[in-house]
Amino acid sequence: MERLEAHDDWKREGLGEGLLERSESRVNQPGDADHDRALWLEQTSRELEQRYQYTIALSPLVVWTAWPNGDILDIDEAGLARTGLSMGEVRGQGFFAAVHPDDRQSVATMWRRNASLGHPIDNEVRMRMRDGSYRWHRSRAAPLKDASGKILRWYGTIEDIHDRKLAADAVRWAADHDSLTGIWARAAFLTGLERAVERAAEAGSVVALMLFDLDNFKQVNDRFGHDTGDALLKDVAVRLSGAAEEPAMVGRLGGDEFALFLARPDSARLAAAIDRAVAALDTPFRYGAITYHCRSSIGVAFYPADGADGDTLRKNADLALYDAKAEGGGTLCYFRGELRLQMQQRLSMLSIARDALDRDLILPYYQPKIELGTGRIAGFEALLRWSHPGRGVQLPATIAVAFDDPELAIALGERMQEKVFADIRGWRERGLDTGRIAINASAMEFRGADFAAKLIARLAAFDVPATCIELEITEGVFFDNSDAHVRRTISTLHDAGITIALDDFGTGYASLAHLRQFPVDVLKIDRSFVQAPTACDWTIVRAIIGLGKGLGIKTVAEGVETNERRDALLNDGCDFAQGYLFSPPVASTGVVGLLEAERAR
Ligand code: C2E
Ligand code: CA
Ligand code: CA
Questions:
Q1: CB count, 10 Å around CB of 433?
Q2: Most buried of 130, 265, 321, 462, CB within 10 angstroms?
Q3: Distance from residue 556's CA to the centre of ligand 2 (Å)
C-alpha cells in the first residue's frame, strides 16, 4: 500500500520525465569514441540516479540528513508528506515538533550522548502524522566523519514500524500475561520478583512475597460451573491488584494459585500492605444468587530475612503455603526455618516409601470388623505396614506423605492390592470365610482415570471376586476430583460388586449431598468421635448412626477400646465396630488364627 502511494507521488511529480529530458540534451555527436564513452557514462550515471530516485520514492523509509549537532538539513518528500510539515518547518530543530511529547526526552538524551561520541543512533519514537495521529517509527542515523573523526553530517532514515510494533507488543503482552485474568503470568512475575529483590538490595528495603492458593476452588467449579469458577479467578485477580499499591506485582502462577509481591522501605509498612491484601479476599464474592466465601491459604516470605534472591524467596514462601494448607487452609503462614526441616522430613518419608516399594517391604495387616449384634467377625480392614530390616514392622504414619504423592500413592495402592488379593486367594483356597476385606484408597490414587478399571482387572488376575472387597475412601476424594469422575469411578466399582465405605466420616466436609449422590454402602464413624469423652461428640456418633439408618447405609465405629463404648454403640444401633477391644491389626497369618478362634467359640 505504502509502496504504491510512493510510486504515485513520484509519477505525479513527473520525476521520471525530468530525468529523461535531461538525458536528451546531449552535446556530443554520435560516432566518435569520446562521444560513445560520454554517452555510456551519462547513461550509466543516469541509470544510477534514476535507480536512486526510484528507491527513495518507492521505499517506505524517510531519508534525511542533518548537521553534526543534529539540526535537520534536508528531508525527503515522503517525510514531509507523512508529517505534513514543510521543508522550512523541518529544518533545524523543527522536526522535533512531530515527535510525541512523551518520547522527546529520550530522543534528546540519545542525541546528546551519541552525537558527542559519534555513535550511530537507533531508537523507536512516536511521530505525529499529517492527520494528527501518532505512529511508531524507527529512527536510525549514522555519522559521516572526516579523517580526524570529526562528524561532518548525519545520514538518517525513519521507518514506519507502527503495525509491526503493535503486533509484537501484543504478542509480548500475551506471553507475559495470564489470558483469563490479565495479570502477570508465571514467568514474567518471577522475573519481576527477581528485579524487585535486586532493587531492594540496592535501596536497603524489604520485599514480601505472598503466595495464595484458593481452598476448594475445584468445588466452586463443580458446584457452580466453570463460568463461575472463571469469574471467581478474575475477581481474585482484581481484588489483589486493587490491594497492591505500587511497587508491587500480582501474578497468577497457575490454576488457582496467585502471587503478590510488595516492596516497601520498612517492615511496618509492609505489614500494613500484607493486611490489606489478606483483607481483600475476605469479603464474600457474589454471582447472581450465589454468595461465596472464598477461603485461601497464604504463604509469606520476606527479603532479605528468608532468602537472598527471588528463587529462594519463592521456595520458602511455597513452604509457608504448604504449611498453611497443612493447617487446613483459610490461614496465613510465615516462613520459618523449621519448615525447611519439615520439608526434609517429608522428603525423607518419600524416600523411605520408595525404598520400601523397591525392596518389597510392604505388607498388609488386617483388623477385624465386628458385628456388634453378634460379636462375630464380619470382615477385615487391610492396613499398610512395612517391615524395617532392623526395627521390625512400621506404621503407615512413617510414610504418611507418600499417600499424597502422585506417583507413590498409586504405587503403594497397587502394591497393597496385589498383596491383599494374594492373601484373599490363599484364604479362599483354604476354604476360610473372611467376609469382605476393606482396602483404603487415597484421594491421589482415586484421581487416576483408570483407577476402577485397573482395580477390577487386578481382581480378575488374582481370581478374587469383587464381592470379597470393600473400598474405603475419604471425603477428600470428592474435593480432589470432579463429581463426574467420582460418579463414574464409584459406579463402575459398585456395579462390579465392590461396596463403598466413607472413611473418617464426620472429620471432613461431611456433605450429606454426597451420600445422596453416590452409592455409599458404609459410613465409618471417625475414632475422634467414638473415643472422645464429651456428650457432644456422642451426639455426633448418634446422629451419624441415625443418618445411616435413614439412608439404608451401614455404620462402623472406629477405634473402640472399651466395653463401655461397645455397649453404648450397640445400644444406639451401630452395626459394626473396629478397635483394640476386639483386636489390633494383625499379620495375614494372624487372620487365620482369629477366624479359627472364633470357630472354636
Ligand atoms: P484409617 O483408615 O482410619 O485406619 C484406622 C487406623 O486406626 C489404623 O491405623 C488402625 O491401626 C487404627 N486403630 C484401629 N483400632 C484402634 C483403636 O482401638 N485405637 C486406636 N488408637 N487406633 C486404632 P494405622 O494402621 O496406623 O493407619 C493409619 C492411617 O493410615 C489409616 O487410617 C489410613 O488413613 C492410612 N492407611 C493405612 N493403610 C493404608 C493403605 O493401604 N492405603 C491408604 N491410602 N491409606 C492407608
Ligand atoms: Ca480406613
Ligand atoms: Ca478411618
A1: 11
A2: 321
A3: 11
Q: Which amino acid is at 512?
A: L
330, 279: one domain: yes
pLDDT for the residue numbered 132: 92
Its sign, for the CA torsion 314, 319, 325, 329, is negative
Same-domain pairing of 221 and 104? no
Same-domain check for residues 207 and 326? yes
**346 belongs to a structural domain:** no
Same-domain pairing of 531 and 505: yes
294 and 390 together in one domain: no
Residues with CB under 5 A from ligand 3 (ion): 503-504, 558
Residue 159 structural domain: 2-165
Q: For residue 400, which atom of ligand 1 is closest to its CA?
A: 30
Residue identified by cell 497369618 is 589
Residue bearing the CA closest to ligand 1, atom 22: 559
- CB 505, CB 526: distance < 8 Å: yes
Tell me how far CA of residue 196 lies from CA of 91, 202, 397, in angstroms.
Answer: 44, 10, 42
Residue 356 belongs to a domain: no
- In this structure, is residue 302 part of a structural domain? yes
Q: Tell me the CA–centroid distance for residue 383 and ligand 1, in Å.
A: 6
Q: Please, are residues 248 and 276 in contact by the beta-carbon 8 Å criterion?
A: no
Residue type, position 70, single letter: G
Q: pTM of this prediction?
A: 0.65
Span 181-199, pLDDT tens digits: 999 999 999 999 999 999 9
CATH number of 526's domain: 3.20.20.450
Q: Which residues' Cβ are closer than 6 Å to ligand 1?
A: 367, 383-384, 395-397, 403, 416, 440-442, 503-504, 527, 558-559, 561, 578-580, 585
Assign residue 124 the CATH number of its domain: 3.30.450.20
